[in-house]
Design brief:
By secondary structure, this protein is mainly alpha-helical. It contains 13 helices and no strands.
Length: 272
């Protein structure tokens, strides 16, 4: 692996499809916030479930993958000296030097807490009654969702602070939280969202909630399962990236002005 790849530089095909992820995120946001879905979401549980699922899962995932940090001037186009690096280059460097699990869990749990709060009956009823609340809902789900997805996928120059196996586990935990929320709604003996009891048209309240639960379950599965299996498969093929530790050491040595690790490893001597 080259240094540029390790630092999150887009290569080959990735450089081509990442911008399309941002385009897809913009389209998805428009679909979620404007009619007809916005209207249906205020009247039915299944409409609300689709809107919520799109805003909470694929939207931040697509933004994380396709974010044009370099075009926005937040990251340098190529990695340079530490003193001249841009904001996100310093953040990326910090993430690689602090790869402890607690930091990753803080971002994951923060997002899941926001997700659960907006999916609670009180919040859903408030959004249905006051349509403008969907905008702060979308913003908070996007911001906190980015914190979660930056722990799971690359967003050059940012790379996840966790290894492949840990990413798979964090992705599975996140997916299970969405599944549990879907199960609670789908198998509720009483109406989970009272404000939708008489607003589902020809559907019964139970059928409305079950369809909504199935849709939330489906969107979570489609979004998280590929990430989980890709990281698990990559970990099985190569349990640890042999260049990751070398990259961290090289950056620390650059600050101290000492020779890079590979020079010391091969026993390079002056004049040879």
């Amino acid at each position: 692996m080259t240094t540029g790849a390790a630092e999150g530089q887009p290569r080959g095909r990735a450089a081509l499809w990442r911008p399309w992820c941002l385009v897809a995120a913009i389209v998805l946001l428009a679909v979620a916030l404007v009619p007809p879905l916005a209207t249906v979401a205020r009247r039915t549980n299944y409409g609300q479930a689709v809107q919520f699922a799109l805003l909470a899962i694929p939207l931040p995932a697509l933004v994380a993958v396709g974010a044009p940090w370099r075009r926005l001037g937040l990251a340098a186009r190529s990695y340079g000296p530490v003193g001249a690096s841009s904001l996100l280059d310093r953040v990326a460097d910090h993430r690689l030097r602090h790869r402890d699990l607690l930091r990753s869990l803080m971002f994951v749990l923060a997002d899941l807490g926001v997700v659960i709060a907006w999916h609670a009956p009180v919040a859903v009823a408030a959004v249905a009654a006051h349509g403008w609340l969907v905008f702060p809902e979308a913003l908070s789900l996007l911001v906190f969702g980015l914190g979660l997805w930056l722990e799971l996928v690359e967003s050059p120059p940012l790379v996840p602070r966790s290894g492949r196996l840990r990413r798979a586990v964090l992705g599975a935990i996140s997916m299970w939280v969405f599944w549990i929320m879907a199960y609670l709604v789908g198998f509720s003996s009483r109406g989970f969202y009272p404000n939708f009891h008489h607003s589902a048209g020809s559907l019964s309240a139970a059928a409305d909630e079950q369809i909504g639960a199935a849709l939330l379950w489906f969107v979570a599965a489609v979004s998280f399962v590929p990430v989980i299996f890709w990281n698990a498969l990559s970990w099985l093929q190569s349990e640890e990236d042999p260049d990751a530790e070398l990259l961290v050491l090289a950056r620390e040595d650059r600050r101290r002005g000492t020779p890079p690790p590979h020079s010391r490893r091969h026993g390079s001597a002056p004049g040879h």
